[in-house]
# Entry
Amino acid sequence: MFGNNEKPIVKFGGGTSSIELYNDYLIIKPSLSQKMSGSTKTIPLDSVVSVNIVTKMLMTPYLQIMTPGMIADKKKDITKGSDANVVLIQPGNMKKAKEIQEYITNYKMRSPEQAITPPAGNNFDSLEQLDELRKKGIITKEEFNIKKKQILGI
# Structure
């Protein structure tokens, strides 16, 4: 599965790290300047909760890959590069970032039962926590509705 000499579907670098997308996983590598504080991560696409392109005024846009541990830790610091699953989107790379986002979204739609890990607790608490993830933009409305039906057993 991982590291079997296959070529990436899409790859690009940007400031603090670079990203390579493969059929069912991705690799985020720290840049040379971030190697001391970051590590290379191999992330199976099944463990991706969401992929976001964040564009804020006067900031370099970035691609962030959210995983369950990041949601629990509320880890969103873009200065941590690969440790925060973030790749800055330099001019000319927005199309590649959108390709990665679209690929992962489509991949997750093929296996909706794995798209979101339900929050622990009773059904009401789970739905409230899931709705908070939707409101924050961590998951899409479509992902929310799929998981809501699973939690409610409908």
Notes: The CA atoms of residues 111 and 118 lie 15 Å apart. The beta strands are 10-14, 17-21, 25-30, 41-44, 50-54, 62-66, 86-88.
